[in-house]
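Run folding on both entries below.
>entry_1
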Amino acid sequence: MPDTLSFTPEDDPESVTAMFDPYSAWSLRYALEFDLTATEDRDDPQDFRYMFTVDTMQAGDIEDLPEPFRMEGDTDVVLLTRSVNIDGNTESAQGTFQSIAPFDPEKNNFSLLAPAEGGKRQLAAPPDMDEAGELAEAEAEEAEDEARTASRDTLRFRAPLRKVSLPTGTQWVMEYTAQGLPEATATIVGVIDDGINPAHSAFHDASGGTRVDFAWVQDAAAPTGPTTVPFGRELTKAEIDAELAAGPKPEVDRLAALGLGDFTRAGVHTVAQRLSHGTHVASLAAGDGPDHLRLLTVQLPAAVTMATSGAFMSPFVLAGAAHILDRAWLMSLAEGFPIPVVINFSYSLSGGPHNGLHFLERAIDTLVQAHIERLARQFPTKPGRAEVEVVLPSGNRLLARGHAEVTGGAAGRTSKTALTLPWRVQPGDESSNFLELWMPRNAAGVELWLTPPGGTPTRVTGLNAAQAVVIHEAADPTAVIGRISLDRQKGQKALDGIARKKRVLIALAPSCMPAAVARPGAPSGLWTVELRARISEGERIEAWIQRDDAPLGYRRQGRQSYFDDPAYQRWDAMGGVAVYDSGSSVVKREGSLNGIATGRASKVVGPSTTRDERLAKGFAALGDLPGAPGYAPLAGHPPRAAAPYAAAATAPMRKPDHSAEGDRSAVCPGVIGAGAASGSRMPMNGSSVAAPQYARYLANTYLGLAPPGPALWPAANETQHVARLGARALPPQPGSVAGQR
């Protein structure tokens, strides 16, 4: 275990690494030996070595875009154009990523970044700036953004796809034939998830066919001939119906014929397990519905879901959301009227700026706005149903000890505010650990100190927005165990009222390397991270640890790191789990909200459960307990309270909009929905199941179906309560709405 760390400016003479998302830069430059290979076998040496190129732009550049790209308000993702065929006519449709290409560090641009012989090539670290210099740099950054002219940026992401998922044939346009859907009530539900069974009986129509019109399996083997998607395989209703009509046979064989659950390929196949996250979620959002409740699904690559940090998620989700809206556009054109769309995405991120400006939040906001305006232009006399709703979960990270913050005091920028973090990295962790530190973009005098377990504090030098640094043992510059980067949000508060931030991202190698990897891992134990900066009174320095545990259906790869602060109070006065912040700890429960749930276009749903009246009333001998406020009870319905894991927002974050059942009770966890196989039922809990119930509520509204019982319960008006569950509550949904068949 190293006693002292050294920080070397990253060798990037051509600024290649700077063009990548920082998570992708870490993954491609330093983690290829262990990232995705410790638990995933390769079918081909090129597996997982691909990249997305995404065109982005600034909100101020909108006026320079030609139609059909110009939109009112902000936009960030340039919408490229491709052709689609509808009943013999060619129409334009939107794409969001520019290209996907192989990226082998040994053959492509990263070869320029290889260290010189002996591994000792280094860039000179810039001298530390004094206070005046740091303030001048911050002012220069502001001036640079203000003077920015219309331009397009490119951002590259790692695309962990298998070679078999990339098509070898030419891409051709998708065709859709009108089905005669009823104009007044036809509704589309889109689901982006993992392990979705498109042949499941919950998605059948009255004739025994499927209500799934299009299903994009992003990591399926690409067809050998023409394809309608840039990677993976798209299943159509005709293909699924043909398999359903192919006579009696085990469902596993039907799935295999559709290219799902192929155990001749390496990796995880959650659709073949007893419970799959995506099938359960889709059943809550659109199971057992009328024939005119149509379903569009996007199954993310298993490698994307397995990386719970979200390091690879953004471009795949962006492509999936664009695909759903693209297919909804086709269906609307063919049917002759706008069809409302409800998209459910039951994933969450721990990190992110939490100010609505995460790349994925901006992209979703842009796509939703573009689709609505496109429908309004196409159907000017039928604008009433040109609507898109995106539903996201609030997250389950309240008790994860993954968020910390400190607020600038009365002295303001005359002295530095410090956030000191005891970061516990666990032994036996086979995946990277990520810590994000966010501060105002004009924070000055930034200092970062790192102390390894049992070691001495070392100040990080040479770090700036154009230059990352690598962490290595002092005695061996080639033994890279981490990377630190600095980036800042672009744009101006004057454009949208959102204060921009900058981020320091610390990436650490696993504490337990695979046996075949000779490189050292990062030491486990208590790391101390201290960030000091001059910020104004009331401004914050915030920290989030990215999620690092195993998702449903996947074998355990990572072990979750956390902030191990002795001042953090884990238990309440009765010995139960404390769900509200108290004491002096910088580690906070409030602020644990899903990092992609702060955008403008989404509806955010938190998980609730049945409230225990005895705890709600408290005990006189102990005084008033710190809350279990619940929703005002209605006759015949038990009052509700936040599930103990339900993440909480903190000002100025947006709060959850609504809540829905995440657990039936403390002793009956979860909500019943579809199992992976037709006819099966399984419970699953969390905000992942709360979100699709609200998505179904929205879909039922478009369908013209009256919800059972009261539509939405009113909420009590406590700040801490609303921060976790929003202002309105969806009652527990009985019968087929909850997937109970």
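>entry_2
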Amino acid sequence: MTSQLMGVRPVPGVLFGITHDRDGSAIVREPRILKVGIGMPRGRGLNVWIHNDKRWYFRMAVKGSDGKVKFEIPHRQGLATRTEAEKFYKDNFSKAAEVNYPRKLGFFTFTRPILADDGTEVFAPDWEAIEAHGPTPTEIDIVFLDDNPFSGAYQMWSTSELRCKGDGINALRVLSMAATAQDQRLVEQAKEAGERYFPIIEGCWTHDCPFSKEANGRPSPCKPGGDLKFQLARNIRVGGSAYFHTSGYRSISHIFSSLERIKTLTGGRLAGIPLKMVLRPYKTKHNGQSATQYGVSLEFRAEDIAAVRQNLIDQAFKFRAGIEAPARRLIEAPVAVVGGADEEDDEVPAISAQAMVDEFYADSAGIDDPADDFEPPAPMNAASNSAAAATEAKTQQLAEKLKKSKRQRETQQEAPQAAPDPQQQLTADEESPPSPPEPSLQPDDIV
């Protein structure tokens, strides 16, 4: 027995619970280094995009004399280079007003998490990805490096932690949320086992969970959450991954359905297949008010069925054959491993929880401001300003002529009945000139 114990040695290069699971399999946690989104979280109101004139534009939140926040476009002619854009962002980010609600955009955004000077996590523009995808992209090329890129759960976040997560039937909830005697018993068992969550058995979203319902006119504190990890085909970063998070029912359903359909054609393979992530607007109604929402889906495009076979099915098999996985060393784990691989991807630090709430759960945290829909305006340079002014002048002249002609026709139609004095009618026309037409919308009018 003693000789057997003396023969036990640690496995070189292995850290059970960090690099390997208890069964000896490798633990791979690829960092998320680039966030693809379709909106901006609450916080400093400053976002950037490339417009169709290939110049860089900013939309900046400023506080007016009345204390209200509005948005302005600082450079109406845009900035010519990325260097200029980066400098403007660096110089003006701290000057932008705080916006207390998330904002929807009609195109994909590319950001990366950084720590601000005050220690909070913010998402700054990823300049390389923005430049690589050009003007206001609504379609981006992506590729998966594995066959299981999508994950999802019903989630309830606070500014400091993920409080509850589930599959719709069963859930795990933080110990501090125990509400019943049965919960307390489960909490005690969880504490003894060293767990941070206690189980909710058949009490999740589809089983009448109280946190799945609207209350006091506010959305439910628990929402579905879907995460998709991938590589941007125009901005590959092997070793880290780009990701897209959504709490939209439609986007989650469309993404999942697209992946399942492709899997049926490729025998379950997704890695290496070139796909398009597509953003489309759609109309919805809530409390009798219409609004524009945006849905995201995945598409594989081909001219005909032969192209489907060549580019979809063959590509999936060639990718797998071309990147053979290295031979995995079978590691026999010791009987008792302290700690183990209990950490999960969604057990994130407080700063990430704050970022999640700022973008996806602000409406559940007492934020009354409506979401801001924004479509980038056409660029306004000197030539377009001059043309716009000339067009407006001609429009005003035409409107005056049309209104005068209309009054003359009305006078002729009413003449047999009222027979007004021509001189009085002429005087009335001179004293009541036609009103000018409504002004056209300019970039500074967008709020």
